[in-house]
Every structure is written in C-alpha cells, then in structure tokens.
Amino acid sequence: MQIKKLRIDPQWQPRLESIGYGYHTTDGIPYWIDDYYYEISNREADLIYKATNELWQLCLDAVEFIIKKRRYAHFHIPPFMIPHIERSWEQDDPAIYGRFDLAYDKDRGELKMLEFNADTPTSLFETGIVQWYWKNHYFPELTDQFNSIHEQLIQSWTVIKPYLKGSTLHFSCAKETLEDLTNVEYLRDTALQAGIQTKLIYVDDIGWTGNGFVDLEDTPIRSIFKLYPWEWLAREEFGKHIVNDPNRAQWIEPSWKMLLSNKMILPILWELFPNHPHLLASYVERPAHLNHFVKKPILAREGASIAMYYDKQLIYHTEGEYGEEGYIYQELAKLHREATGFSVIGSWIIGQESCGISFRESDMPITTDKSRFIPHIIRH
Amino acid sequence: MRKAAAKSLQLVLITSVLASCAQHQARQGNEGEQRVFMRADSTAAYTEVTDHYAQERSGMGMGNAFLWYMAFRHLGGGFGYANNSLHPQSIAGTNAGKAAAYQAQRGGFGRSAASAPRSSYGS
C-alpha cells in the first residue's frame, strides 16, 4: 500500500460536479484528492475484506451480549430507548450499512479497528461512485478497485424490501448540508433501483399527529431511513414519540445500532475478545500500564474532542464540545504514514458483507472533518 | 467475495436532480412568469417556491398545504410568523386551509443540528 502521484486533470472539479459531487472542496481547500492515490495489492484487499467481515461478526456478537446481560451502563442511552433497542434487535429490524475505521501497520501486516461508524456513516457517495469514476478516468483498463458498493446497496435494498413496513420508504437528513443530502439521495437512488417507492423529507419537517409520524403531505411514515444520529433523535422533543408510536415506524439504521456507534462498544469488544488481532485494547478506566493511548468521548463526531497521549504525555488533541457522557481509553495504534500525511482506511460493510474501501488522510494522526479523501486502485 | 468492482453504474436520482437544477437556472430569465418566494422566519433568506405553487395550487386562491405550512408553522423562541404564545387555532381561526396545516406538530426533530451547524452530521 503506497501513495502514487498523477498529473492533475485541470478539469477535475467540473468532472466531479458532472456526476453530482458538489462538496469536493471546503473553504478553498480540496477535500477530494484527484492527483494522488493509494495503490494496494490484491493481498491487502483480501486482508481488509476478511478483517471487515470478521469485525462485523464480533460486533453482532457484542450486541447480543449487551442485550442478554443488560450491559447498558456507561452507554448513556436514555432508559426509555432500551425497550425499543431490544425490540429492534429481537425483530431483526433491517440495517443497511456501516463503516469501520481501520489502522494499517504495513510492516506487521496488521489491521486494527479504531472505531465503527455504525449509525450515520458518510463518504458513501465518494467511495461508491466518485472514486469509481475517478478510476475509469485515469485508469480506463486493466485496473481494479475494492469497490462493489453500488451493486451491494441495490442488492441489499432488494433483500430488505419485503420486510419494510408500508408502501413507501422515507429518507431523511438535516437541512442545509449538501454532504448529507448527497449521501441520502445516493442511498435513495439505489433503493429506487431496487424497486422501492421512496420520498425525501428533512428531519426537521417530520410531523407528529398523536397517532404516528407523518411527512409534509400528512402521509404516515411507516419506514424511514435517517442520516441523523440516534442519540440526537432520542433527546429531542419528538424522541419519546419514537417509542410510543402506534405505527411502530421502522427506523433504518435500527435503534440497536446505538450500541455499536457508541465508543463504549470498544471496551466491551476487548472484554469479549481480548487480544483479538483486529482489536485495540480499550478500557472504561485507564489502567496504569497503558502508556500510549487515545482518550475518546463515547459520543462524538468527526474526530472532535479527542486527546492522544504518548508516555502519558499529551501529544495531540482536537477541539470539540463532546465528552459530557464520558470517555473510553484506547491503546494507541500505529497509523499508515506517507509524505502526504497519516491515513485511515474506511471499510464498508453493506448487507452483511465487506464491499469497499476509502482512505482518509490528515496532517496529524487524528481523522477529522478536514481530512482528505484519497481514491485507490488495486495493483495487479 | 465481493471485492472487485463492476461494470457500468447507473444513477437515476442524483442525475435527474442536477438536470432539474440546470433547468431551474435557465428559467429564471423568463420575466413574464409569476414567481413565488417565501421565507420561514424573519432571519431567513427567501426561497423560491414557484414550482410547488404552480404545480399544486388550487383554483380557490389559497395555495397548497406546503405554503400554508411554511407561512404559519410554529417556530420556537418567538421567531417566525407565529410564535408559541399563540394557540394554533388562534391563527387558523375558521380557515379550514390554515387549520389543515396544523394537523401535525412539526419541528420536534432537528434541533441538535440547528444548534451546532456543520457541513455534515454524519460520522
């Protein structure tokens, strides 16, 4: 796995915009990298594929364990949501996707799970579509990419379709965010191609009648995909209606994902599978022997409010308003480093199967909303 | 193993959204066309809602549910056309069109995002 350079296409921005990708640049700084890329080997792609499927299975086992043993302490989930979480798990409510963030140590050939974005993962559109078009532009022949996201999404919606409630699947996100809207519209696109009837509604516009949630045309919402964090839904004014909803609307991702999107899952995974080759040691309280570690809020987004320690000395930290609910302590991982920066692998699980990767690169060893997206190819 | 990628990708929705955006810009040059702009509260920018209005307005000069909702929805903190100190019925009165816009409460989700605007609320 290594960075390779390209001669930049002067038309890269209009080329991306022509396929519907409008957030390639933030405040004049490119988020999308067009003129360099990662080249990985077939063996590395196989390693990521296998590790991702294995981690997904560990996560499912951990959810089963938490629910069975009622290990909800430290998750800071509102108590009224627990029965909803348990019901969504017992009913096997459909989940569509998630993204593991992995650290790769090339020298040791080790992949370690940094965290699991199980509830509201983004960068799906750039991973599934934009980097595929990028590959076809620069490498039109005889080159592959670890990327079957598009087909896997359509196939997963096709499998889920018979289990959806109602005739329409609503799709929702917050207003005024092009990135989230693009991700949601891409998902809705793939659902349409699977033959599902869909409607878009901003989360702010969801209505409550006393007899259920409705869209702007007062049509009952029976199934809804939301790109909006569960912990926010639960604490907002309509949160309690989710559990009192007479229609028992089906939420995707389901509420049991609250257990996996919370960093408290990391110490539980380590407790259940100590020394697993793809896990980092993680704890609720920092043990005395842990000298190099990262302190992460259990609920945080985009790398905010993180502190990194080496020999128990703070070496990096990010600003943020998170941490009120508590922290976990995770063994410091070695990130892949090139002259251009530190990289984390985003590995997607869609419909129970690993199906694509992305790379996010940063100047410091913490991935944030400013981190760059780097496309990749598989070297043959 | 689903490692290797496809083939030819087809996008139905995003491509059509872009196409409609292009048409929208082209249409702005038509001076004779009636255009409708609304805003949700006194601090917000005006948004063109001509398409909603043109597609669905009734012959009774009342506009549709979307327009009534935009015009009379309750926004917390006293902002907007109506504030929480007034009962919805006091605003709707005997107007059935206005009353219909109040059949559902809205705005009960989304506050967390509105209070800390970001480019994405994903992870």
UniProtKB/TrEMBL annotation, chain A:
The keyword Magnesium is assigned to this record: yes
> Which InterPro entries does the entry mention?
GSPS_pre-ATP-grasp-like_dom (IPR005494), PreATP-grasp_dom_sf (IPR016185)
> What Gene3D superfamilies does this protein's entry cite?
3.30.1490.330
GO MF entries = ATP binding; ligase activity; metal ion binding
Taken from the record, one Pfam family name reads: GSP_synth
Source domain of life is Bacteria
Entry keyword set: ATP-binding, Ligase, Magnesium, Metal-binding, Nucleotide-binding
Which taxonomic lineage does the organism of this UniProt entry have?
Answer: Bacteria, Pseudomonadati, Bacteroidota, Sphingobacteriia, Sphingobacteriales
Know the name of this protein? Glutathionylspermidine synthase
Q: Which residues form the Glutathionylspermidine synthase pre-ATP-grasp-like domain?
A: 12-378
Automatic annotation (TrEMBL), chain B:
Keywords assigned by UniProt, alphabetized: Signal
Does Signal appear among the keywords? Answer: yes
Q: Tell me where on the tree of life, at the top rank, the source sits.
A: Bacteria
Q: Where is the signal peptide?
A: 1-19
Q: What name appears for this protein in its UniProt entry? A: Lipoprotein
Native species: Parapedobacter pyrenivorans
